[in-house]
Design brief:
Number of helices: 4
Shape: elongated
């Protein structure tokens, strides 16, 4: 999806919502690819399980946030997304520091995307609180 697809949506907010949802889904799928490269050890499996779970959870919880029953419910669900993204970020740090034999280009790409997604959610939560 790119800026030219904006005409398919009624407004920019809807475009951003769909784009963020797609980013979260892609992030989860790419994280799974990275985790498949981790060694079949206790630590490798533990990191992989947590990262796959937390990256997918952020996408699912974002979907729930779109149907929030109130502003407070929306903020709560967005905070859950942020928590899951931060958990995944710690897993990325394990992979980088652990010197695992994984695709480091993919690791760096996901590390950057994870950081950007965290920033988006921090800002969104701040904005939602301010508009409360």
């Amino acid at each position: 999806m790119n800026e030219n697809d904006l005409i398919l949506f009624e407004d920019k907010a809807e475009y951003r919502r769909v784009n963020l949802e797609n980013r979260l889904i892609d992030f989860s799928l790419e994280t799974d690819k990275l985790c498949e490269q981790l060694p079949n050890t206790k630590l490798g499996n533990y990191i992989a399980d947590n990262m796959v779970r937390s990256s997918a959870s952020s996408a699912f919880n974002y979907g729930e946030a779109q149907s929030a029953e109130s502003r407070n419910d929306f903020i709560h669900k967005m905070k859950v997304c942020l928590k899951e993204l931060r958990e995944c970020f710690v897993g990325m740090k394990f992979i980088k520091r652990g010197k695992f034999k994984v695709d480091m280009k993919l690791t760096e790409k996901l590390f950057q995307e994870n950081n950007e997604l965290i920033s988006i959610f921090v800002k969104s939560i701040q904005t939602a609180r301010r508009n409360k």
